[in-house]
Design goal:
424 residues; alpha/beta
């Protein structure tokens, strides 16, 4: 099989034989450009609506703030009240000290916002009535509204949440004994357009803010009355085209002032936005990375994932090596097995060649069915053959069994769907 693939590498679907150092330099130069103009990268990488990158998408702790800007925010008219969760720690501190409040009030309010999930200022019972009234006059405090909730036979729950501007997104909670895993969305819709994904078919409405991503975690935790043990940013959207907001949410989930989830139990998923994979490798926290691969044959991957055509497989391969060198962490490749499309011997040979000799784990998923799709999942026997063959080439691989498929809550199935007059 491996020799057959060597011959295959010579045709137009092959990975181009180039100088690895040159590729690494090219990807690094892309990263340098993103540092100069990160907003343009967002637009180039996935048509992100950069106007939705909110103040809250900055890191939870900042060394300094623009006091004049914060003061201007606080003086906006009531009809344009600033969402209080959009203020970072230093901005909230400035706002409260300007109101004559002691510094310890900041910690109290942040606990209500990021841990206790206060839905109104009246919930903040350890604050004086006067302060609660002042906060209500100066700031807004919105919480997502539940549009629909579905419960799977396996105990998973899918939620459709509506945000303040009417935009909606889905998230999922998956309990296992006394542990709760969650999957949250980073965008309403997605611009990548993967042909087998319900979210991709719907297109992109807008990116979510950092606190809108984080609020999904609080909502699920409150509904289950269980502490979140792990989280994946693997719902609707491409997290790395909404980089700042996604990182903010991860850091708040990890923070002792937030959910307090260990960094290695927090995963960000991407279709392969290469400059931001390199950027992600420089984050100090030990978050984990999952890359949606789905094919190691260029023409097949271009067909399945048209939104990342510009990032070819050779560049992805070398970028992932740079990621491993920088972090020492093992990334995961997600691979949805589609009958007759990416489960052939040729596709398997290409996958073995792509992964062999690298520090990676392949997560095989039998495709989850979506409405009006011509694609079917491969058989369990074929999936097991992939695992055995990959292991023969020294590549760690497992079959991931989806949760919540009966309520369209599994990977690739998230999409606001209307049945009759009821949205589900």
């Amino acid at each position: 099989m491996r020799e057959a693939h060597r011959r295959h590498m010579n045709n137009q679907d092959s990975k181009i034989k180039v100088d690895r150092t040159a590729i690494a330099d090219e990807v690094r130069s892309l990263y340098k450009e993103t540092q100069k103009n990160p907003q343009q990268l967002a637009l180039d990488a996935g048509n992100e609506d950069s106007s939705n990158i909110h103040t809250s998408t900055r890191q939870p702790s900042c060394s300094c703030i623009n006091a004049a800007h914060t003061a201007a925010l606080c003086k906006q008219e009531a009809s344009q009240k600033v969402e209080i969760r959009s203020l970072n720690h230093d901005q909230l501190t400035y706002a409260l000290t300007s109101m004559g409040e002691p510094a310890f009030r900041v910690k109290q309010i942040e606990a209500w916002l990021w841990q206790k999930n206060a839905r109104s200022f009246d919930d903040m019972t350890n604050l004086s009535k006067k302060l609660r009234l002042q906060l209500k006059e100066k700031f807004a405090l919105y919480s997502p509204a539940l549009v629909s909730k579905q419960v799977s036979q396996d105990g998973s729950r899918k939620y459709l949440l509506r945000f303040q501007d009417g935009v909606m997104a889905e998230c999922v909670g998956m309990p296992t004994k006394n542990k709760l895993a969650i999957c949250v969305s980073t965008q309403a819709g997605c611009a990548i357009g993967c042909v087998f994904c319900a979210t991709g078919k719907a297109g992109l409405t807008r990116s979510l803010t950092g606190y809108e991503i984080y609020e999904q975690a609080l909502f699920i935790q409150d509904d289950f009355q269980m502490r979140v043990a792990s989280a994946v940013l693997m719902g609707q959207g491409e997290p790395l085209t909404n980089y700042n907001a996604s990182i903010f949410a991860l850091k708040m989930m990890n923070s002792a002032s937030g959910l307090g989830v260990g960094a290695r139990h927090l995963t960000i998923s991407t279709c392969g936005i290469l400059p931001n994979i390199i950027k992600f490798s420089h984050e100090k926290e030990q978050f984990t990375l999952a890359v949606s691969l789905h094919s190691a044959v260029q023409s097949t991957r271009d067909y399945l994932m048209p939104g990342v055509k510009r990032f070819n497989l050779q560049h992805l391969h070398d970028t992932m090596n740079l990621y491993v060198e920088a972090t020492g962490r093992r990334p995961t490749y997600e691979y949805a097995l589609i009958k007759g499309v990416n489960d052939t011997d040729e596709e398997l040979a290409a996958l073995c060649d792509f992964c062999a000799g690298t520090l990676a784990h392949v997560n095989l998923i039998q495709l989850n069915k979506i409405d009006d799709s011509p694609f079917l999942p491969t058989s369990e026997k074929r999936a097991e053959h992939f695992v055995k063959t990959l292991k023969r080439f020294g590549v760690e691989a497992t079959i991931r069994h989806s949760r919540g498929a009966d309520i369209d809550a599994a990977c690739g199935q998230l999409k606001q769907k209307v049945v009759g007059k009821k949205r589900i």
